[in-house]
Amino acid sequence: MVRKFLSLCLAGLMSVSTLLTPVMAQDAPAAASTEVVADAAPAGGHQMLKNRFIEGDPTFMAPVLICLILGLAIVIERIIYLNMASTNTTKLLNGVESALKSGGADAAKEVCRNTKGPIAGIFYQGLDRAHEGVEIVEKSVVAYGGVEVSRLERGLSWIGLFIALAPMLGFMGTVIGMIEAFDQIAVANNISPKIVAGGIKIALLTTVFGLIVAIILQVFYNYLVSKVESITGQMEEASISLVDMLVREKATKH
Q1: DSSP readout, the chain?
Q2: Stated pTM of the model
Q3: 13, 148, 231, 237: which one has the fewest Cβ atoms less than 10 Å from its Cβ?
Q4: Which tens digit of pLDDT belongs to each residue from 91-146?
Q5: DSSP letters spanning 15-74
Q6: Cβ pair 178, 200 in contact under 8 A
Q7: For 191-218, what is each residue's pLDDT tens digit?
């Protein structure tokens, strides 16, 4: 899924970069423009992306690329962690209920120990204090649930930072590129497009790359947030079911 999404983003980047070329060269001779298009046609997507990155000046593009690499690294780690944290809640509840009826709290805790995920951990903490009463179980479940939620949300703030930072770095490259363009105009005392094309090109490319990085990370960020909310909802529902189960078990014994 990640590879397919990145391929689509690269394709979109190539399309945007291709559209920028005629805008930069609109005042150049027609023959030169035709030659550029003819030379660019055979180039592959990765080569074109590399060329655009170099044209945008690595001084400004490298920080944007670093934001993308670090952001995707955290995204991949979070996706793996959240997928491993997903639990079949119905199966776990049925197993815990059967164990409670047959072997008591110790058997139910053994079922939780053999099940991965934060929900099983919350169940274990609640069952470990089942002998202290239902109110203590509720407090324990709520407290440990907060700890598990913080673990699920770990790293999301860094992704949000890179989402905000990438376009800002791109805009900084844009501003610096425009300053260089005006400096060239002042030195040459001429407003010919040929003189300012280099600075404007750097400005546009850094902006485009910064926005693309932010868009990629924003999509993954929203996916991760929705995944965390889904797991959190399952944790809350399962915790309520566990408390109800213990209340029924206590009533049955009495």
Answers
A1: -HHHHHHHHHHHHHHHHHHHHHHHTTTS-HHHHHHHHHHHTTS-HHHHHHHHHHHT-HHHHHHHHHHHHHHHHHHHHHHHHHHHH---HHHHHHHHHHHHHHHHHHHHHHHHHTS-SHHHHHHHHHHHTGGG-HHHHHHHHHHHHHHHHHHHTTTHHHHHHHHHHHHHHHHHHHHHHHHHHHHHHHHHT---HHHHHHHHHHHHHHHHHHHHHHHHHHHHHHHHHHHHHHHHHHHHHHHHHHHHHHHHHHHHH-
A2: 0.71
A3: 237
A4: 888 888 888 888 788 888 888 888 888 888 888 888 888 878 888 888 888 888 88
A5: HHHHHHHHHHTTTS-HHHHHHHHHHHTTS-HHHHHHHHHHHT-HHHHHHHHHHHHHHHHH
A6: yes
A7: 667 666 666 777 778 888 889 999 999 9
* Length, in residues, of the chain: 254
* CB < 8 Å & 24+ apart, contacts of 184-192: 192/27
- Tokens 């440990």 belong to which residue? 144
